[in-house]
Amino acid sequence: DVKVTQSSRYLVKRTGEKVFLECVQDMDHENMFWYRQDPGLGLRLIYFSYDVKMKEKGDIPEGYSVSREKKERFSLILESASTNQTSMYLCASSPVGSPVYEQYFGPGTRLTVT
Amino acid sequence: AQTVTQSQPEMSVQEAETVTLSCTYDTSESDYYLFWYKQPPSRQMILVIRQEAYKQQNATENRFSVNFQKAAKSFSLKISDSQLGDAAMYFCAYRPANAGGTSYGKLTFGQGTILTVHP
User: Fold this and answer.
1) Which residues of B have a CB under 8 Å from any CB of A?
2) Is it the case that residue B37 has pLDDT exceeding 70?
């Protein structure tokens, strides 16, 4: 079974802090994604990576950055957390090769910025 | 840009009954893929069913089936014989088939529908 894990289920941070959210997948997938999930808005793509050290902006990249130094790990960084970044963050991975392939999701990190 | 709309924020169904969740999408592409994902409370999102736009036959996975109307850009999910374990948030998602290159993996999600199953 594909397993995608995220470093924390719940996280509380203060405004202005630098926040790292970590995601690890164990299926050698090339693609990895970071989404945020907000009520009434569904999932919105923040960033994705299609290879080590490669990244592309998603629909809402402002205030975020990412790092992918190893194939299995994809980190989301909030350089200076703000209250409007309070949200559920979901990581996902998928293989390349066909658009029919599903994305596999982690359990999510619920981040609260106070 | 593609958009996906789920117009039902919440739905409810009695156990053993049938429920249909609606999804519409907007695209200028002719070839694409559609997905329904399920997010149970406090659990990971999983794929329920997928449909390839070039296939006219509606996809079916056990109690889950879709009604894919390409001309109407509609992709509804039917859950038959509903079970308590079907209670979850359901997301409809779209992916173009020929986005090319690195856009291959990108999904566009709808807003989600919370399904409650009553015993």
Assistant:
1) 4, 6, 9, 32-33, 35, 37, 43-47, 50, 52, 91, 95-97, 99, 102, 104-107, 109-112
2) yes
